[in-house]
Amino acid sequence: MKKVLIIDDSALMRRVISDIINQDERLTVGGTANNGEQALEQLIHGAKFDVLLIDIKMPKMDGVRLLREMNRGRIRVPSIIVSSIASESGSETIEALELGALDFVKKPISSIGENFAEFRVELLKRVYLAAGLDVTKAVPTEAPKPEPRPAAGGPVRTPVVRKHHAARKGTKLVVIASSTGGPKALQSVVPYFPANFPYPVVIIQHMPAGFTNSLAQRLNEMSPIHVKEASDGEELKPGNVYIAMGGKQCELVSKPGGAYCFSENDKPPRGGLRPCADIFFESLVETSFEEIVCAVLTGMGSDGSQGISLIQETHEVKCVAQNKETCVVYGMPRAAVEAGLADDVVPLEDVTGMLVRRAGV
Q1: Active-site residue among 8, 62, 278, 303?
Q2: pLDDT value at residue 136
Q3: Over the stretch 93-112, which tens digit does the pLDDT of each residue have?
Q4: Catalytic residue chosen out of the listed positions 24, 206, 283, 305
Q5: Catalytic residue among 79, 83, 179, 305, which?
Q6: Active site residue 179
Q7: pTM for the whole structure
Q8: Contact between residue 264 and residue 229 where contact means Cβ atoms under 8 Å apart
Q9: pLDDT digits (tens, 9 = 90+) for 77-95
Q10: CA distances from 138 to 132, 141, 297, 299, 352 (A)
Q11: Catalytic site residue 18?
Q12: Overall average pLDDT of the 46-52 stretch
């Protein structure tokens, strides 16, 4: 059984999480701690755990400082942040992911009801992933995989008969889809777009409400190109990177005069995802972009592949997939490769260069 250390200053939350972990036949609670200081003491004295579940806001030593101290002491244990959605926790959660936390889960509003059921599913997914267990044996996967197309000798694009659409010459769009491991992976992608990149970039990162603005602010600090969270009704403009709002579905809708703007809406989750990359890609079918260049980065499930396959029928599409070796989870890129959608499969550090090249810049 895989041992989990729960680190949270709330006795109620420690009990709630303990019940979830101990009810799973492949997991057990190996210990608890009221704060990062207690947890660090256990780790320094040789206590062995397979996964750490870390709260952000704690007395004496918070979650961010715990991860920093673990890095300093070269203590390597897969860690997951269990965080509230307070605005101050958003930026600290992003910092925790930078420091090596694999992923994070939003705390439930209460210990009963639909919100709690969703929390349980998301927590077990991530604990299984961090512990190296088969995620499909814990809970349903995020979304069904598209039917793979046979490919010999690597990814091969299946020819499609492209439906007529009125493409506007010189208009291109870059779209990046990512999930587990994405916030950190994006730091190896977004800052390397040149300041004068001439096309808009849209990022669909699976995140709940309250965190994508902090992610956008952090990436903007690191990047020569302007990065922001997309807002409902905002016009899409070249030379900007937009991160789809967490907890909303993101689509592009046309405006009079041929411009496009974002619709950040409350359409239901698909495969448990909001935002969902497939839904965003589907909104591009009737657009007049001359070319759509996309990247599929680390993440569980297969989100993005069905949508990319759909826009291939109406647009010129180029797709870059992150390779297995540099992914935290080789799920979404693998689905794109197996479906024959990927034109290029490259290490994370080469993604931006390939996107820029495929965009003809």
Answers
A1: 303
A2: 76
A3: 899 999 999 999 988 876 66
A4: 206
A5: 179
A6: yes
A7: 0.87
A8: no
A9: 999 999 876 555 688 989 9
A10: 12, 9, 23, 17, 34
A11: no
A12: 96
